[in-house]
Write a structure and sequence with these properties.
- The chain is built from eleven helices and ten strands.
- By secondary structure, the chain is an alpha/beta fold.
- A five-stranded mixed β-sheet has the order 3-2-1-4-5, with helices on both faces.
- Helix 3 links the parallel strand 4 and strand 5.
- Bound molecules: 5'-O-[(R)-(carboxyoxy)(hydroxy)phosphoryl]adenosine and zinc ion (ZN).
- 5'-O-[(R)-(carboxyoxy)(hydroxy)phosphoryl]adenosine binds next to helix 6 and helix 7.
Length: 342
């Protein structure tokens, strides 16, 4: 089956062409530079940019895939959760295309799509999704941090999520406190690479509580107080590296600890991770090490499939159609606050 998929839930405009579980093209137009001067995503600007980017991004995906419009057998788009007007740009474009082509339309849950990115980008890529289920999946980005139990394909349950800031938000806010440009997560990661993670002891919020929930706003606040007491650190590069390494170690320890504990409790043999923070080198290293110790198979999303993309949307849409899930109506509305159900 050949599908065209769109993703516009936040600040990436993406179109992908997927055929029989293989990603033929995945074009992503990132808006990071546009929003950087405002220090965060501006919803109105994001929507305008999506509307400007969608036509060329769709055409580029089709050309790269070598697929003509007439070959498209289904169209998919993210329905939620996300920024309302941004979602609307992609959803209405996809519904219109599906209607005009007289093809089924599939509205996709953004987080459910994230569950698929480790499989399509891992080594080797696999269409055998069932082989590694059940698993525990960590979805960790600037907008979300959650643990999901995937019992079988299309059967999942959210175990826990953040009660305040997402992990990526914590990276970005700490980065902003030390003067790094938005989004500061990747730069903080780079600085942390040259530092000693044991220099400063920051809190590991909710690491040992009974739930699978997360909390990161207290950690950010403790870094703010620490910097108020130690302002000279801001002009001391080795000190900053140690600070970044220590903050990163705290965030990563919580993410890894809770993910592995949930996997152990549920008796699964596989762990996956996706979302922008999965690019973090400390997280990739420590999660791999913890999974090795625990005898767990780890699948990490890689490259541009860590961050938001339409490939994961198309892959999930195809799986849904193959499993006999009914298409979505052409006039379905966005679901900005859509909770991931089982
Ligand atoms: O998935 P994503 O592109 O967008 C959403 O938030 O949905 O994730 C972006 C987030 C940002 O907070 C960014 O700082 C963070 O992922 N991020 C990182 C790294 N690369 C991206 N955080 C820490 N280390 C990184 N290497
Ligand atoms: Zn996302």
């Amino acid at each position: 089956m050949t599908l065209l998929a769109l993703e516009t839930s936040c600040d990436e405009t993406s179109a992908a062409v997927v055929r029989d579980g293989v990603v033929l093209a995945n074009v992503v137009a990132s808006q990071i530079k546009l929003h950087a001067e405002y220090g965060g995503v501006v919803p109105e600007l994001a929507t305008r940019e999506h509307l400007r980017n969608l036509p060329p991004v769709v055409v580029r995906a089709l050309v790269q895939a070598g697929v003509g419009v007439a070959e498209i057998e289904a169209v998919a788009a993210t329905r939620g959760p996300g920024l309302p007007a941004a979602l609307m740009a992609g959803l209405k474009t996809a519904e219109g295309l599906a209607f005009a082509l007289r093809r089924p339309f599939v509205g996709i849950h953004h987080h459910e799509a994230h569950l698929y990115s480790p499989w399509i980008s891992g080594t080797p890529p696999t269409a055998d999704f069932a082989a590694f289920q059940p698993n525990v999946s960590l979805i960790v980005s600037g907008g979300h941090t959650m643990l999901v139990h995937v019992a079988a394909e299309l059967e999942h349950r959210v175990l826990g999520s953040t009660v305040d800031d997402a992990a990526g938000e914590c990276f970005d806010k700490v980065a902003k406190l030390i003067g790094l440009p938005y989004p500061g997560g990747p730069e903080l990661d780079r600085l942390a690479g040259g530092g000693n993670p044991r220099t400063y002891d920051f809190p590991r919020p909710m690491l040992n509580d009974e739930t699978d929930d997360f909390s990161f706003s207290g950690l950010k606040t403790s870094v703010r107080y620490f910097l108020q007491k130690n302002p000279a650190l801001l002009n001391d590069l080795p000190g900053l590296r140690n600070l970044c390494a220590s903050v990163q170690a705290a965030i990563v320890e919580v993410l890894v600890g809770k993910t592995v504990r949930a996997a152990r409790r549920l008796g699964v043999r596989c762990v996956t991770a996706s979302g922008g923070v999965t690019c973090n080198r400390g997280l990739r290293r420590d999660l791999a090490e913890a999974c090795r110790r625990e005898g767990l198979v780890l699948r990490l999303a890689s490259g541009e499939l860590c961050t938001d993309n339409a490939a994961m949307v198309g892959i999930l849409a195809e799986r849904k159609l193959l499993h006999g899930v009914a298409p979505t109506s052409y006039d379905a509305e966005i679901e900005p606050g859509w909770a991931l159900a089982g």
